[in-house]
């Protein structure tokens, strides 16, 4: 094989690898999504329960803010029935709201699901979206059926950060 051709192929492959690494770095450092643990191992019942979060959630500065409830992997969150489905088929429908420092209540509706290696997660977003600068003081949660959430998260990101 021609030495010139081999050199061109090696330089081209090296250039592609460098571009790939630069792309990964840009994605990692310029995609700003936060997942803050609000509480671990929380039992959600049919009575309103409050989680104090003022010290965990700073004044809102991002476009999208969500409350994410994790359930054990044996539960199903990717079901069309708009609820969490327990292994026995029971449909669980948590109600979630955030209270700001002015005492205003912001209802969060189930909008999506996420999956990790450990949990199924159901995502609740406010409608309308929360205004930047609002300080969330506490989260209120209740459900039609009691269940244990291994973790509840506050998740936020800016629209420009979506891939």
Describe it for me?
It is a single chain. With 163 residues, the protein is α+β, with helices and mostly antiparallel strands. The protein has two domains: 1-31; 34-157, Jelly Rolls. It has one helix at 3-30; strands at 33-44, 49-52, 64-72, 84-85, 91-92, 95-100, 105-115, 119-126, 136-142, 147-157. It has an eight-stranded antiparallel sheet, with no helix packed on it. It has a two-stranded antiparallel sheet with strand order 4-5. A hairpin with a 5-residue loop joins strand 4 and strand 5 (91-92). The chain starts with a helix and ends in a 6-residue tail after the last strand.
Features:
alpha+beta; 2 domains; 163 residues; 8-stranded antiparallel β-sheet; Jelly Rolls; two-stranded antiparallel ribbon; 1 helix
Which helices and strands appear, and what pairs or packs with what?
Elements: H1 3-30, E1 33-44, E2 49-52, E3 64-72, E4 84-85, E5 91-92, E6 95-100, E7 105-115, E8 119-126, E9 136-142, E10 147-157
Antiparallel strand pairs: 1-10, 2-9, 3-8, 3-10, 4-5, 6-7, 6-9, 7-8
In the CATH hierarchy, the architecture of the largest domain is Sandwich
Gap between N and C termini: 41 Å
Strand fraction:
35-45%
- The H/E string reads HEEEEEEEEEE
How many discrete structural domains? 2
Q: Assign a percent range to the helix content.
A: 10-25%
Largest sheet: 8 strands, antiparallel
> What overall geometry do the principal axes of the alpha carbons give?
elongated
Mean pLDDT: 84
Kindly identify the CATH topology of the largest domain: Jelly Rolls
> Please, how many helices?
1
CATH class of the largest domain: Mainly Beta
Strands ordered across the widest β-sheet:
1-10-3-8-7-6-9-2
Based on secondary structure, the structural category is alpha+beta
Low-confidence stretches: none
Number of strands: 10
Radius of gyration: 21 Å
């Amino acid at each position: 094989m021609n030495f010139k051709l081999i050199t061109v192929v090696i330089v081209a492959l090296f250039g592609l690898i460098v571009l790939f690494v630069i792309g990964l770095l840009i994605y990692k450092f310029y995609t700003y999504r936060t997942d803050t643990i609000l509480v671990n191992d929380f039992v959600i019942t049919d009575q309103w329960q409050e989680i104090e979060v003022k010290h965990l959630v700073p004044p809102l500065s991002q476009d999208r803010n969500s409350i994410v409830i994790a359930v054990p992997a044996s539960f199903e969150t990717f079901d069309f029935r708009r609820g969490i489905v327990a292994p026995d088929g029971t449909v669980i429908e948590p109600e979630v709201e955030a209270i700001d420092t002015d005492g205003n209540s912001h209802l969060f509706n189930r909008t999506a699901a996420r999956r990790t290696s450990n949990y199924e997660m159901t995502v609740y977003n406010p409608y309308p979206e929360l205004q930047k600068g609002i300080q969330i003081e506490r989260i209120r949660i209740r459900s039609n059926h009691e269940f244990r959430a291994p973790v509840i998260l506050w998740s936020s990101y800016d629209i420009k950060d979506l891939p």
